Amino acid sequence: MRNRRLWVGISLLFVVVVMIVGCSGGQKEETKINKDPYSKQELLLGTYVQIRIYDDGKEAVLDQAFDRIKELGDKITVNESGSEIDAINEKAGIEPVKVSDDVYTLLKRAYEYSEDSSGGFDMAIGPITQLWHIGFDDARKPSQEEIDQALKLVDYHKVVLDDKEKTAYLEEKGMELDLGAIAKGYITDEVVKVLKDNGVTTSIIDLGGNVYVLGHSPRGEDEDWNVGIQDPNKARNTVIGTMKERDKTLVTSGIYERYLKVDGETYHHLFDPKTGYPFDNDIAGVTIITNKSIDGDGLSTAVFSMGVKKGLEYVEGLEDVDAIFVTKEDKVYVSKDIESTFALGEDSGYTMGDRSELK
Questions:
Q1: Taking CA 104 as the corner, what is the angle to CA 102 and CA 105, rounded to the nearest 5 degrees?
Q2: What is the CA angle 16-250-107, rounded to 5?
Q3: CA neighbours within 13 Å on the CB side: how many for 167?
Q4: Dist CA 138 CA 211 (whole Å)
Q5: For the segment 75-103, what is each residue's pLDDT rounded down to a tens digit?
Q6: Is 319 exposed, middle or buried (0-12, 13-18, 19+ CB in 10 A)?
Q7: Distance from C-alpha of 227 to C-alpha of 250, rounded to nearest angstrom
């Protein structure tokens, strides 16, 4: 499957939109918001992508949005002829590679998140994710010697970006970029731009869990979307609680959907760039709520690397960012700004955690 190759080491995203789309009796005709959406779904980027548009007469915008997704996927896909990221990896230690504005923008943001997280998110994690290859048929646990060798090539500081020439250069042979943890966020934001540029006001964009709720709910202009937060320990469409949101993105990293079992040990797909092994902390899943999906992507991986306590502190120091943490001990912690708006499901099996008990 051609686009499946992109998502090596991708942070799988556990968010589901609980749509309450019954038409309110007080809906005004002039809003031209349909009860039932125009909808399109395709298998792209290694996942099911679905876009639903509720604005009357805007069905044709679906094709424009999917064309943009395919265009960006072709530029970013690893191990695909013509991919710009693949070209950068192939020229590692040899020469810089000129890239498109789209890819350069993505690279710049990936570098910024690598720095902001002190390497907890590392855009050059490719040698490790390729070594384990979790999520693919040839996934395996590498030897310690293999991991040690691969770690020598994981260092975002050795990614050289030239703003004037729009080039990217990896300083050592064998280095590899892996933008799977941030690329879908960038693509989601580009889809939002396409919709807005074409006059769409009410829509849901779901790129395999990178969810963006545009505008108000179809129930009326005063109604936000009711967004469910996926239980990272159970099947899709099982939620632990809900949030009311509009013009926001929800992005989650979690450990249970893509993993490898070896000798009774489970290894998930979210890798620590410092050890070459999956992160080992108290988090089962973390959902980031913010304005831009690329920020949600970068932050979800960054805070996952920190654990619940430090992750909460980090998020609460940022503007327009909230987070919901689910622990391996079935506790839920939320950032302060959403303590009064996050509703934990009564039958979820989870309890709200006491922050004073975090270590």
A1: 65
A2: 125
A3: 14
A4: 30
A5: 998 766 789 999 999 999 999 999 999 99
A6: exposed
A7: 9
CA dist 17 and 236 (Å) reads: 11
Closest CA to 188 of 249, 230, 122: 249
Q: Decide: 228 and 276 in contact? Cβ < 8 Å.
A: no
- Taking residues 71-76, what's their average pLDDT? 94
Kindly give, in sequence order, each residue whose CB lies less than 8 Å from that of residue 165, ignoring residues fewer than 6 positions away: 96, 98
Stretch (H or E) spanning 268: strand 265-268
In the prediction, which pLDDT does 111 show? 97
Residue pair 236/67 in contact by the 8 Å Cβ criterion = no
Q: How far apart are CA 339 and CA 333, in angstroms?
A: 9
CA 233, 319, 120, 248: dihedral to nearest 10 degrees? 40
pLDDT per position as a tens digit, 238-248: 889 999 999 99
pTM given for the model: 0.88
SS3 at position 87: helix
Q: What's the rounded Cα separation, in Å, for the pair 129 and 222?
A: 45
> Per the structure block, which two tokens stand in for 171?
């300083």
Sequence-distant (6+) residues with CB within 8 A of 169 are 88, 91, 95, 96, 97, 159, 160, 161, 162
User: How far apart are the C-alpha atoms of 274 and 205, rounded to whole Å?
Assistant: 34
| Phi and psi torsions of 186, nearest 5° | -60, -45
Between CA 135 and CA 143, with CA 139 as vertex, the angle to 5 degrees is 140
Cβ atoms of 175 and 96 within 8 Å: the answer is: no
- Tokens 């009326």 found at: 220
